Amino acid sequence: MNLEKKISEAIIDEYFKILKNSLEVDAVVVGGGPSGLYAAYRLAKDGYKTVLLDRRLSLGGGIWAGGMMFNVITFTEKSKEIFDEIGLKYEKRGELYVASAVELAGVLIYNLAKSGATILNGIFAEDVVVKDNKVKGVVINWSTVQIANLMVDPLVISAKVVIDATGHPAEVVHHLAKREKEIIIAGEGPMHVEVGDVATVTNTKEMYPGLVVCGMAANAVSGAPRMGPTFGGMLLSGKKAYEIAKERIESI
Ligand code: 48H
Q1: For the segment 124-170, what is each residue's pLDDT rounded down to a tens digit?
Q2: Exposure of 227 by Cβ count < 10 A (0-12 exposed, 13-18 middle, 19+ buried)?
Q3: Exposed, middle or buried, 28 (CB in 10 Å: 0-12/13-18/19+)?
Q4: CATH fold of the domain at 25-63+117-228+237-251
């Protein structure tokens, strides 16, 4: 019995099964921060074939570090319901609610993992597929290829809808904007918590047929302010992205 061979074979077979099953899906969510994790979880929970990509190995994006690496996050009354829905433990502190950043990341990742979504970590979206003036998928590669600055041609995941949940850099929208001159990126505004937290939801939209932008990326492309370590808007934005994506998928 060669157990070493069996372990390697099991990993290779299982991963290739996952990858092959991800080549044509309903939704690709690029970015596993709070907004992307929530959007992907809801889509997969509804039965849509969903892939979430993150260039890092660990999902969670900016959640873990709370504010300046103090691993506590905040949210306000208007988003309390969504934190109840995901089952997060929190405490009231004046007009704010506070919770463990680690627990929030854990709960969102756990919900996603149980939802049936495919999680491809260590893989990034380096471009989009555009056909007939619609985004039809993402061009993917290993993050290590990017880190090592290697010249390696990518592969593709086809999707009915792509969600840009890449946070401050709004990477997917930027890739598209390089070619589609009608896409104007206004850039992120300076800190204004009350405005920024609401604007991230208002700015969650279908930027281009087949491409939805959410979370911090939604403000980064719309010229709206940042909001610091408060996460209610992020989850509500993920929820709105899920609703828009669902409508798009159903319309095809
Ligand atoms: C694959 C990618 C790619 C790519 C990036 O930044 P995030 O946490 O995203 P959001 O928008 O859900 O949450 C923002 C929040 O964390 C935050 O930063 C806040 C509230 N800031 C306020 C302020 O004032 O600063 O996560 C984005 C994720 C990360 O995990 C990246 O690794 C990943 O996306 N990512 N994955 N392909 N091209 N680009």
Answers
A1: 999 999 999 999 999 999 999 999 999 999 999 999 999 999 999 99
A2: buried
A3: buried
A4: FAD/NAD(P)-binding domain (3.50.50)
The alpha carbon of 59 and the centre of ligand 1 are apart by a number of angstroms equal to: 10
For the chain, which residues make up each domain, given as ranges? Answer: 25-63+117-228+237-251
The CA distances from residue 191 to 104, 156, 200, 214, 226, in Å, are 23, 37, 13, 18, 5
Ligand 1 centre and the CA of 36: distance in Å? 8
Helices 34-45 and 232-251 cross at an angle (nearest 10°) of: 40
pLDDT, tens digit, for every residue of 167-221? 999 999 999 999 999 999 999 999 999 999 999 999 999 999 999 999 999 999 9
Taking a C-beta distance cutoff of 8 angstroms, is the pair 221, 186 a contact? yes
H or E segment and range at residue 91:
strand 91-93
Ligand 1 pocket (Cβ < 6 Å) reads 30-36, 53-56, 61-63, 124-125, 165-167, 171, 191, 215-217, 226-228, 234
Q: Name the residue with the closest Cα to ligand 1, atom 30.
A: 61
- Å from CA of 243 to ligand 1 middle: 20
CA angle 88, 93, 98 (to 5 degrees): 30
Q: What is this structure's pTM? A: 0.98
Please, is 113 exposed, middle or buried when counting C-beta atoms within 10 Å of its C-beta (0-12, 13-18, 19+)?
middle
Find the farthest-apart pair of alpha carbons in the chain and give their distance in angstroms, rounded: 63
Quote the distance between the C-alpha of residue 216 and its chain's center: 10
